[in-house]
Structures are given as C-alpha cells and as structure tokens.
Amino acid sequence: MNMKQKAPAIFLWNFIIFFASVACADDNAVVASEGLRDVRSPVYFPFNYFFLVIILFLVLVACLAGYIYLRRKWKDGTAALPVDNRLPWEIAYDQLDQLARSSYLQEGRFKEYYSELSGIIRYYFENRFKIRAPEMTTEEFLWSLERSRELSAVHKETLKKFMTSCDIIKFAKHIPRVEEAEESFLFARQLIEETKIVDAAPNLASTDS
C-alpha cells in the first residue's frame, strides 16, 4: 500500500486592479495651476429665534390646556363623591351589618369575607385616630398606630393579632371554619366598641341631678 498521498493542487489567480482618477479636466487644471488647497471651513447659518419662540409657545399652550383639563376632571370626580359625615364607629357598625348580611360564609368565600372585615377595621382606625395610610402594608399601618397615645397598649396588641390573623387567611389561603369567622366578626365589633369615643354628657347630667 502506497503511504504517500498526493497533495491537493492549489490554483492562485492573479488579479490586476486599475485605479483611475475621477477628477474632471477642469479640476486637474486648477490643481496644476494653484496646487492643493486646504479644506474649506464649516458654513454657519444664522439661528432663527422666531421658530424657537413659536415652539416654546405651543408647548406652553399644550401644558396649560392639559393642566386645565386635569383640574376640571379632578374637581368633577371629587364633587361626585359623597361625603359621609358620620362618626367613624357609626360607619364601621353600618359596614359590619352589611357584611353580616352578605353570603360570603354560606358560599365559602372566606378570603373575601376577611378582606372586607379587615378593611372595615383598618378604615375605622384610620378615621378614628386620624391616620391616612391607604397605601401602607399591614406592618406599616400597625407601626403608625404604635405612635398613637390614644390607643392603649392592650388594644395595640389586640389589633396586631387581629390584622395578622386576617392576613393569614387572605394571603396564606388558610380555610377557617364558619365558627372562627363569626368569632372574628364579634371580636372586630368588640374592638370598635372599646376604642370609640364615649359621650360623657349623660353621665355628667346624672351626677348634677
């Protein structure tokens, strides 16, 4: 067996490239007579301030029109909202009565039930203790109540346990019993009853008599 193998042949082609000047005869004549000239300096055009003023004016008109539109829309929206002048606990009692008449427990919709129940308590404490925290988490809301001097330490701890138990059912998908939900409802009503402002006028009248 012949171990030698013939190497493959490689063919190389010769390419010849021709370069030609594209300058016309007149240009060649100018170069021959004057020589190479330097590059021309940039041409500056005068700035037209009239168009700048027009653009700024249109932008200002558009911003002003948008502001007027949003302001009118905001006024219309706020004017349409009803204002509830009742006391915070009166509103909370009414909301609890509506929740008690709902069919959440009968339909097994515990997440919706506890969401509304915790929302009622949170809205009550926000109005009762003048806390505006609609975007706060439960932890932030409870921390803001820690600074309140009107709420006792016992009620702070009770409210913390109540809100935490509601979050467990809302987010951890814990399914409670109907009896547990009813106990939470009574607990919420008791919490409102213990923290509302009691009118002392009848007691003063009875002592004077």
Would you give an account of this structure?
The chain has 209 residues and is mainly alpha-helical. The protein has a domain at 88-196: Four Helix Bundle (Hemerythrin (Met), subunit A) (Up-down Bundle), CATH 1.20.120. 61% of the residues lie in helices and 0% in strands. It has eight helices and no strands. It has helices spanning 25-34, 49-80, 88-100, 110-128, 138-146, 153-171, 178-195, 201-208. Helix 4 runs parallel beside helix 7 (178-195) and helix 5 (138-146) packs antiparallel against helix 6. It is elongated, with a radius of gyration of 41 Å. The model is unreliable at 200-209 (pLDDT under 50).
Describe the secondary structure blueprint for this structure.
Blueprint: H1 25-34, H2 49-80, H3 88-100, H4 110-128, H5 138-146, H6 153-171, H7 178-195, H8 201-208
Helix pairs in contact: 3-4, 3-7, 4-6, 4-7, 5-6, 6-7
Task: Sum up the structure in keywords.
8 helices, elongated, mainly alpha, Four Helix Bundle (Hemerythrin (Met), subunit A), disordered C terminus
CATH architecture of the domain at 88-196: Up-down Bundle
Q: H/E series, N to C?
A: HHHHHHHH
Helical fraction:
55-70%
Question: Which CATH class of the domain at 88-196?
Answer: Mainly Alpha
- Mean pLDDT value: 76
Total number of helices = 8
How many whole angstroms does the radius of gyration measure?
41 Å
Main β sheet profile = none
Counting helices, strands and paired strands, the structural category is mainly alpha
Spans of at least 5 consecutive residues whose pLDDT stays below 50 are 200-209
